[in-house]
Write a sequence for this structure.
């Protein structure tokens, strides 16, 4: 058991019989620890550059919509401060990252850009928002965002509900491992 961790994915190559050991002969192993460590270092370096204060005792959530291998292109990091009747988060887009198109049926969000700039697409309309700009996203509004140089967005919204994010790309919905939560980072 010491040879395995939560960062190793194990996939059997064949049916494993009762009491048969899991081994390199009957399974494929992939380790995401190295790419996760690299990603985490990029997020921490970017946050340090922004000089934005945030609580250090909160979890960091990495959304890797198409897998960790493509996080640098399609991904988002977030820190949730509060999630009750209302919610407060900071969303971190690293340089060159895109958050794919999604919508919420219930949640209403207000984005306050607090660092950098972001290209926000609401339904089919694109607009650049810079530090200090505020925009509200109503339920059912399809939205995606991209930042060429990286940005931090303060999100104030109604309560975040786990099953209220709907992505237009069905591949994202099929990816049940698209979130990594880091409690100690």
């Amino acid at each position: 058991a010491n040879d395995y961790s939560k960062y190793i994915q194990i996939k059997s190559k064949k049916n494993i019989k009762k009491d048969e050991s899991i081994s390199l002969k009957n399974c494929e192993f992939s380790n995401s620890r190295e790419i996760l460590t690299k990603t985490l270092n990029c997020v921490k370096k970017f946050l340090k550059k922004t000089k934005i204060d945030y609580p250090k005792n909160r979890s960091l959530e990495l959304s890797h919509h198409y897998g960790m291998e493509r996080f640098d292109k399609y991904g988002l990091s977030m820190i949730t401060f509060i999630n009750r009747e209302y919610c407060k988060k900071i969303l971190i887009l690293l340089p060159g990252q895109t958050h794919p198109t999604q919508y919420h049926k219930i949640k209403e969000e207000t984005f306050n850009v607090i660092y950098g700039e972001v290209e926000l697409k609401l339904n089919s309309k694109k607009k650049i928002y810079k530090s200090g700009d505020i925009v509200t996203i109503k339920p059912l509004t399809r939205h995606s965002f991209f930042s060429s140089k990286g940005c931090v967005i303060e999100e104030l919204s109604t309560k975040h509900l786990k099953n209220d994010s709907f992505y237009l790309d069905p591949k994202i919905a099929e990816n049940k491992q698209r979130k990594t939560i880091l409690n100690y980072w």
Q: What stands out?
A: The two ends are 24 Å apart (CA to CA).
